[in-house]
Amino acid sequence: MESPTSAAARPDFYDFLDRMRRPAAADLFRSIKSFLVSFSFHEPNAEEDGSKVQAFLTEMESAIRDHPLWANATNQEIDHALEGLEKYIMTKLFDRTFGTSAEDAITDMEISQKIGLLQQFVKPHHLDIPKILQNEASWLLAVKELQKMNSFKAPREKLLCIMSCCQVINNLLLNISMSNDRTLSGADEFLPILIYITIKANPPQLHSNLKFVQLFRRETKLISEVEYYLTNLISSKMFILDVNARSLSMEESEFEKHMESARQATQISVASPSSSQGLPTSARSNKEEADLAGSRFPFMDSETESLRPEEVKQLHDLYRQVVTRYTLLSKALRKLSIDEDQLLSSVDDS
Amino acid sequence: MGSRPPGISFKLVLLGDGRVGKTSLVLRYVNNVFLDKQEATVQASYLTKRLVVEGVPITLSIWDTAGQEKFHALGPIYYRDADAALLVYDITDSDTFLRVTKWVKELKQMASKDIVMAIAANKSDLVRLKNIDTQDAVSYAESIGASLFVTSAKAGTGIDNVFSDIAKRLLEKRKGSTDGLSPPQPKKGILIVDDEPEKEPPPKCCS
């Protein structure tokens, strides 16, 4: 596997910015500017935004190729310019393109909660990972790579985290096979380890990250090996979403028991910091909560007419967070067989 | 990363129960080594092989899949946009042949495209240990429009045949299609295009 971080293959982002600032690049810079501005006329829609970005990158590829600033440039130099361009526009468009729909936020939270439960009882043998391959120390490296993904904004850099994670697993498998005179088993061994590492890592916003890379990484780069490893992580995500007793090699009753005690453990740890005195809330803590709400939801006392456009955006973001949280809370209440309306009226009475 | 393979590129997906030796088969084909003793630094789950068929250079991207039953449901994620599937079973284990028939059914149900299939009856070096008749498997393969090849990753037999059969049929199919054999435009690369509109489930209506 090609090393994703080898210095020679690393595009220099500052070189790209530097070239774009030159007077000779003014025409390109204008196209980029007006492309970015064009987004403000439309509501965010990840799929549509994705096709627009892909079309623009293709268009810019020929523009750069024919541009005097890149006259006599090698394919690699042009490629680096395009990497710089992708990073530039996706950093600018990040807030509108990454995990913006409420559905994405809910899926992210669902996956993360599910993994939170699985983390508490899934062991390598549940995924049929043979003892000889179990190496928690090396896995930690892979776990760290996967967790890093969420901290990057450029699709390429997110993808590199996935590739590095997979490379760590592959190196481990190769070393074990060489030192033990053992036949390599390819995907039969690779995928279960990747799934286990995904569970260990619980990568923040996994679904949104995968979707973002699929939509916004240059299409000509989502091929071959890169496409294969991305597909494997998508596959891990699917496995986790659909996990059941059979897929973890256990009896139905055993699986349910594990899930139930994991749920209880999670609820205790979530509940304890907020209400140490139990359910009946005193008047004092009620007031405290109201103050807290004031600072967390800053537009509660604002007049609609006086909102500035950027505040509307902020408000919209907050609204999304509230909807996501409410949806999850309702779901949690249903799981606890508590009637929402009854609960609310009981809180009002006190 | 993602260096562009030259010529025409095809995606081949490997399907077979765990432990039927599908990985060894491909490593043998790609590196010409049986991994009793392994030296080359390779990874074993994604491999490419360049070959020339009737004067045309082609590249096979070979996608290995996890064969254990518990990962079966993930299959479509891998084979959905594949051009060809190599189905491998262990000639000494009839259960692994049943798995093959299960995958064939699924592949046939994919309305989107007519995928090229071949079946490898692997571990034929063990065949003398048991009395095995491949006649049923041969007629099954014929019935689904595939060929059956008896292979041994250990002895290195039958492997080139199965891959060149696949490559030939892929090329014929491509010749028959309207795309023809026009070489890819420079720098456009070869897209492994997902011809389904969207990998994600369609977004739910939000109004």
From TrEMBL, chain A:
Q: Which Pfam families match?
A: DUF5601, VPS9
Identify the residues that the record assigns to the VPS9 domain, covering every copy. 105-249
Q: Which spans does this entry mark as compositional bias, Polar residues?
A: 266-284
Matching SUPFAM superfamilies, A to Z? VPS9 domain
Q: Kindly indicate where the leader peptide sits in this chain.
A: none
Give the region (Disordered) as residue ranges: 266-294
Which SMART domains does the UniProt record give? VPS9 (SM00167)
> What PANTHER family does the annotation carry?
RAB GDP/GTP EXCHANGE FACTOR, VACUOLAR PROTEIN SORTING-ASSOCIATED PROTEIN 9A-LIKE ISOFORM X1
This protein is called VPS9 domain-containing protein
Instruction: Give the source species.
Output: Urochloa decumbens
Automatic annotation (TrEMBL), chain B:
Recite the UniProt keywords alphabetically.
GTP-binding, Lipoprotein, Membrane, Nucleotide-binding, Prenylation, Protein transport, Transport
Q: What Gene3D superfamilies does the record point to? A: P-loop containing nucleotide triphosphate hydrolases
Give the way it sits in the membrane.
Answer: Lipid-anchor
Q: Which GO terms describe its cellular component?
A: endomembrane system
Which PANTHER family is this protein grouped with? Answer: PTHR47978
Which residue ranges does the record annotate as region Disordered? 174-207
Cellular compartment(s): Endomembrane system
Q: Which organism is it from?
A: Urochloa decumbens
Q: Which GO terms describe its biological process?
A: protein transport
Give one Pfam family: Ras
InterPro entries named in the record = P-loop_NTPase, Rab21, Small_GTP-bd, Small_GTPase
Its family remark reads:
Belongs to the small GTPase superfamily. Rab family.
Q: What is this protein called?
A: Ras-related protein Rab-21
The UniProt GO MF terms for this protein read: GTP binding
